[in-house]
Amino acid sequence: MVLDLLASHSSVRDYEDVTLSRETVERLVSAGQHAASSHFVQAYSVIHVTDPAKREALAELSKNPKQFLTAGAALVFCMDFRRLTAAAGLQNEEIVYSNAEALVVGVTDTALFAQNVAVAAESEGYGICYIGGVRNAPEEISEVLGLPEGVAPLYGMTIGVPKFRNEVKPRLPVASILHENEYNSEKYEEQLPEYDRTMNDYYLNRGSNRKDATWSGDMAAFLKEPRRMHLKEFLAKQGFRFE
Ligand SMILES: Cc1cc2nc3c(=O)[nH]c(=O)nc-3n(C[C@H](O)[C@H](O)[C@H](O)COP(=O)(O)O)c2cc1C
Predict the structure, then answer these.
(1) Which CATH class is domain 2-167?
(2) String of b and e for 80-117 (b: at least 16 CB within 10 Å)?
(3) 31 has pLDDT over 90
């Protein structure tokens, strides 16, 4: 049952006009919080954006208007060391999170929390879409959401009743992902062209947004240039400095 649910995931970018209640959002967030957490730091917060003007700002700044304007709920997931600073303050202590390890912990905790929220939402029949586009304008979005030092937005998530569902995208074969005892890159020579054929077939025949593309072609184009180079400076401003 859970395996079937996980295997049925596809991102939803077009929603029916149904607003998620505060209770629903609280239930999903509570499910998210049960994810494992590194040393139990729980280094995340999520902003539920209900103010229409802020929703519009998010839509524009993230360059993902359709999802933010039509979804039943708009969330922004943030890694958060502000609350940990407050907790340490209760003990008259100061914490350090300017190191690379803290960044990895914060990103990991937030991702596990967010993915639990996503699976919980999908288990109730909603569709979701992550919006990494919030990192297009992290500084402006932090201002809109009043994020203090120690807090950084990592991705948004829209949740709602799907108006349209994409077909499930074929994933890489398990054999490409799963290595036994040691890493083996030799297998890719055979497996990746095979996967490109699978993805090309998927892209040519899917219900919408058809294109003659391959996975390796898309990845090469996507990763040819560094992206969002403003991020390092923004994170440093929020206190995350990769030390
Ligand atoms: C962290 C993260 C950020 C993403 N950002 C966006 C985004 O900004 N806009 C969008 O339309 N989809 C976004 N996606 C969705 C991916 O494009 C999608 O998960 C991927 O193409 C696989 O398709 P599927 O989710 O339908 O299986 C994001 C996914 C993740 C995990």
Answers:
(1) alpha beta
(2) bbbebbeeeeeeeeebebeeeebbebbbbbbbbbbbbb
(3) yes
